[in-house]
Amino acid sequence: MNAPVQPRRPDEVGVPDPFQYMHPVLAKNYGNWAWHDRPRPGVLHHVAKSGEEVWTVRAGTQRQMDVFTIRKLCDIGDKFAEGHVRFTTRSNIEFMLSSPDKVDPLIAELNSHGFPVGGTGNSVSMISHTQGWLHCDIPGTDASGVVKSLMDMMHHEFTHEEMPNRVRITTSCCQINCGGQGDISINVQYTKPPKINHDLVSKVCERPAVVARCPVAAIRPAMVNGVPSLEVDEKKCVCCGACYPPCPPMQINGADSTKIAVWVGGKHSNARSKPTFHKLVVANLPNNPPRWPEVEEVVRKILFAYKEHGRDYERMGEWIERIGWPRFFEICDFAFTKHHLDTWTGARKTMNMSAHVHF
Amino acid sequence: MSHDDDGRANQGAQKHPTPMLDELESGPWPSFVTGLKRLRDSGDQQYAPMMNDLLGQLEHSYENKTGYWKGGTVSVFGYGGGVIPRFSEVADKFPASKEFHTLRVQPPAGYHYSTDILRQMCDIWEKHGSGLIAFHGQSGDIMFQGCSSENVQKAFDDLNEIGFDLGGAGPALRTSMSCVGHARCEMSCYDEVKAHRTVINEFLDEMHRPALPYKFKFKFSGCGNDCVNAIHRADFAVIGTWRDDMKVDQEEVKKYVARVGRKYAIDKVVAMCPTRALSLNDDDTLDVDNKSCVRCMHCLNVMNKALAPGDDKGASILIGGKRALKVGDLMGTMIVPFIKLETEEDFARLVEMARNLLDFFAENALEHERIGETMDRIGLPAFLEAIGVDPDPNMVNHPRTSCYVRTDDFTEEAEKYFERRAEKAAKAIAAE
């Protein structure tokens, strides 16, 4: 008998030290930057207290990258940026240059390989997105495809700084909303209660945990066809899909019942107003691959209404707060329905408890 | 290396037709489908058949509007988390991608890479995985997407050898994020790299061996612009701020006003201050009422060269941000208005605060409950008492409006408040 192979023990290194990878001008002036400006869209110019300067060129990527794309970006990094890059939280890649002469040639090189340069200042940056059909175990839609379609439509808005303020868009493939808050959020919205495969529930689900997961206490244990299962009070069910991850036999997705909703006015920054959650604008849009044209149309309407009517430095939500929701729905020509009235905990605080009215 | 159609002759398998996905190759934005096809068409690589079937399955999802992955249990020796297992439910049709697991790998703080280390990652993933890498996932991880069960350990071993470690998944401490901060931003109010690495690397056991009630996320932003979305997306958000007066270069203020015009400066800077702390003087210099300023960052963002954070920098800590599941969205709540982050002792205090919160969470949260929900369930006074933090008016928008509270110890609580204030004042005098 061969001796069993001793498995390798992991080296628990944790978060890697970034200084070994950081561009030397950034490392040298760490914690000592003075100011910055933006010479053109997609380019940042930072000046250190030492007087040293660095130019950053930001380019969009598809986030889900094949090794050939990554190596191509590395080649470009070697040629122009002394072999260092960084990524932004929205999957843009940044090349740091110690001289301004290389900015234009780098942009030309990136563009020639199909990488758009932009995403800075008051532009539409890359959409933050999730995994979708490509890799998630509970997706209602795809993420990469929605993002690709929308970024094609908004390409000009990525490469130019023509919005009132920055626009941060997110997508999510289920109501867990891994994509997060956005000026515009494109999220799956389920419309039917889960369809239960009663033969499987007791085999694959920890039933009390599933009961506990429901936010509206609509699930209870039950014997169905002589086997222990779960049943859903469909009058109570809010179709959120929270029971589906812990219990896949409670299928929440349906080819026609999984819809898309669009939300606006989410904001993470503390600049001016406090951070805010996004609010519902349109629901029941069809989940329509491969390019989701109905979603694209709604996003386009909102985006260009904001572009036309927003004032400098107003984020989407701040613009709407100024003009009022009646005017927003009117400008975008969207319906205001009973489903826009919040019914969740704290809902009353979202109502207008004043005589302030927009006409 | 050839990526043309000749390459696939070596595969011995037909390419799955992908008419729907093909439509995602047009248009100006970089196409992930084109990238997937490049991998599929690299006939000399071990992953080419896997990526052919992956494209086939994805097309199948597009046709039927259904996902076909299910979870399971896959991990590496010594760890309980960090791998996202994916088994295909349609493996009979697409056998080569029947296992398509993701390794979540922690990125360097601030997302800095050398091209050399990126190439090493590509080589490892080309050898053991699918050749598909996402920079980055929503938790902040580098996601090495697409690995067979057999190769997960090999891929991890090689990545671990070049200095990278798995991130978090499941009910555990999750991978963290920090903004570019000190490395390239004049707004940065503390050393984000040091805070990120010091805190997370202290609690790796909680990441690698999931034993918490649910996920717990730390995120580090150097100022109120919160570029890593910490307040809403983290259980423990560290947001840079400063206590003293902001710095004003009046000559630069005048230059700004001269450049944009007085009306614009008033409309877009002064009038947009949320606490009316700014006023433009008749000589085009700026008056700042620093006691009213809330460090929102707007005027600093706009008049970048003229205004800057003060010298007495540090951070605020907000606890309890999360998304919808299960009580609804919560923003983090201000719990520590100011913590200094300069000396080793300061960072040790941050780690202690983190340990305190993790311990509280581990002991008190219900299964599948985020700490923000625990706070709501027990109420802020009980939460503060449990973590040993005194109430502070910065924690609220306004004091309570409901009279339904028992206040028979109000006088004693008020005395404690005045004692704390006197102690703080005595300390400040001693420090001077």
Question: Topology of this protein?
Answer:
The complex is a heterodimer of chains A (359) and B (432).
Chain A: H1 24-28, E1 33-40, E2 43-48, E3 53-59, E4 64-66, H2 67-80, E5 84-87, E6 93-97, H3 103-112, H4 144-153, H5 155-159, E7 169-172, E8 184-190, E9 195-196, H6 198-204, H7 207-213, E10 219-224, E11 227-232, E12 250-251, E13 258-264, E14 279-286, H8 293-309, H9 316-323, H10 325-332
Parallel strand pairs in A: 7-8
Antiparallel strand pairs in A: 1-2, 2-3, 3-6, 5-6, 8-13, 9-12, 10-11, 13-14
Chain B: H1 19-22, H2 32-40, H3 48-64, E1 69-70, E2 83-84, E3 87-88, E4 102-105, E5 112-114, H4 115-128, E6 129-135, E7 142-147, H5 149-161, E8 177-178, H6 192-202, H7 204-208, E9 218-221, H8 230-233, E10 236-242, E11 247-248, H9 250-260, H10 262-270, E12 278-280, E13 286-288, H11 298-302, E14 307-308, E15 313-319, E16 333-340, H12 344-364, H13 371-378, H14 380-387, H15 410-431
Parallel strand pairs in B: 8-9, 9-10
Antiparallel strand pairs in B: 1-3, 2-4, 4-7, 6-7, 10-15, 11-14, 12-13, 15-16
Helix pairs in contact in B: 2-3, 4-5, 6-12, 9-10, 13-14
